[in-house]
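Run log // design_07
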């Protein structure tokens, strides 16, 4: 441990730490969006506390997960149930392990959450109806923030372990990115609160996050349909789709304002 601590404060160690913090920030955007949307489900006076406590607990558990993965990585990679494609099963094949199962379940839950919120948004007659909707308990919201944070952790932890085996550096990057996430989650939440027109955009981004996780989990589980394996959506593809969604939303909003202004002047 002393050797790793000495290595962490060296020039190369500090550069690696900076790289890992940047990596955590890039990989953590989808997690940040989920935290912001989940915290909106509790009473407004409790939202800041939910984000702060949820992320704080998630930092501790993410570091614990780091050590679990470090010393039991084979348990995450070893399939516990599999089905090979062949004459008896020509249309389906899989090899589920613990990691792929957690990611698949997390992705499915996020897809369900996004679709449920989109349905509620379309079904309500009054745009302020969401204020009368039963609020989620603080403990429940914190629980789901922590759980989904762990689901999102696998990518960042495995990527960090591929760059360095120094547990001190990885732990420091997790702590630094966690505190940054606390600040940014408040900023994103306040932005969505002031600009409700972007709620739909946020929910569809969350939906795509769920698709990305399901595809990643399916790829890790070697899920195949009719001898065609599921391919994971890359982060590059995700950010490209995100960029296109934002551009379309901005153009659509400006065009709509232009049309409304033109109709008002007639």
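design_07 sequence
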């Amino acid at each position: 441990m002393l050797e790793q601590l000495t290595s962490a404060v060296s020039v190369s160690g500090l550069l690696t730490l900076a790289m890992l913090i940047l990596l955590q920030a890039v990989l953590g955007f989808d997690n940040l969006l989920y935290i912001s949307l989940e915290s909106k489900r509790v009473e407004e006076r409790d939202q800041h506390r939910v984000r702060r406590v949820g992320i704080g607990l998630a930092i501790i558990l993410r570091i614990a997960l780091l050590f679990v993965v470090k010393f039991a990585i084979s348990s995450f990679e070893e399939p516990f149930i599999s089905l090979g494609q062949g004459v008896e099963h020509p249309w389906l094949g899989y090899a589920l392990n613990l990691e792929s199962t957690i990611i698949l379940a997390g992705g499915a839950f996020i897809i369900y959450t996004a679709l449920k919120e989109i349905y509620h948004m379309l079904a309500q007659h009054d745009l302020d109806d969401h204020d009368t909707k039963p609020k989620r308990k603080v403990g429940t919201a914190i629980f789901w923030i922590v759980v989904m944070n762990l689901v999102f952790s696998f990518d960042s932890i495995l990527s960090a372990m591929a760059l360095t085996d120094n547990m001190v550096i990885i732990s420091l990057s997790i702590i630094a990115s966690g505190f940054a996430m606390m600040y940014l989650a408040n900023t994103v939440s306040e932005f969505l609160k002031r600009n409700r027109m972007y709620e739909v955009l946020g929910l569809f981004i969350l939906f795509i996050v769920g698709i990305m996780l399901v595809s990643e989990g399916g790829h890790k589980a070697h899920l195949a349909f009719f001898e065609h394996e599921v391919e994971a959506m890359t982060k590059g593809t995700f950010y490209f789709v995100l960029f296109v969604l934002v551009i379309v939303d901005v153009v659509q909003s400006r065009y709509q304002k232009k049309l409304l202004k033109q109709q008002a002047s007639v």
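The longest strand covers residues 92-96.
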